[in-house]
Amino acid sequence: MKLLKEYQILPPCQIYLNNYLDYLQSWVKKLCFMNSLEANIRDNSTKGQLNAIRNSGDVPAIIYGGKDKNQKISISKKLLKFLIDKENFLSNIITLNVDGKPQNVLPREVKYHIISDEPTHVDFLRVLPGVKIKIEVPVNFINNEKSPGLKRGGVLNIVRRKVELKCPSEKIPENLTIDLDGVDIGESFKISSIKLDSDVVPTIQGRDFVIATLAAPTVMKEPEKPAEAEAAEGAEGAEGADGVAATAEGDKPAADAAKGDKKEGDDKKSADKKPAEEKK
User: pTM score, two decimals?
Assistant: First the structure.
């Protein structure tokens, strides 16, 4: 009853704002967790009709695979672009509601406009139980902060960001996870180090190919010197400076003595010259 009274006290604009915020929050949640699209069956045969569909804000698409006939459909461009912007669009199963009937499909190809880069056509493959398909699955690396090799400046060289697998359509893995916890410099990750189901196999057979390696840094970091060593080096530098100063002071009297000897020699030469001049 108290809440009802408080609600009645609120001004109409505040009530409208609260309702709008609730609607916006529910819409954002729906988009974030959305993995389905509404689709309409289209019946067109000319290029002009396809352009009309695109101009109306939709994208032409087709559903193929299995025993059923191919279906020409159209879907919202705005919602399609939102799903494309999400990671791994081409490896996630999507539910298409075609005139109220849900169908699980897998996006296989998206065509884009050559100038505007807007999606112009999408191919969907029907997901049928037991049917094996080839699909590229992304590789995900975790626990980077727990790798001693990376802490020492190592570089993670990723050879394959995606691995093509052959698996049943209902067992498509979201990603291939590689744990970097405790991994040091010089270690490598091969396909054999990833756990896969028995009916999920890589399309590359006959060799254990490398997915990533943890290499040494190009420039090795110099280890930090302890405080005692730095203090000792500072003391040695100070002693060297004092020695240089003492040497300079010792050289100064010698230089003065040399100047005095030179002056006496000059006086002697001038004295010798005087008698010769008198003789003349």
Answer: 0.59
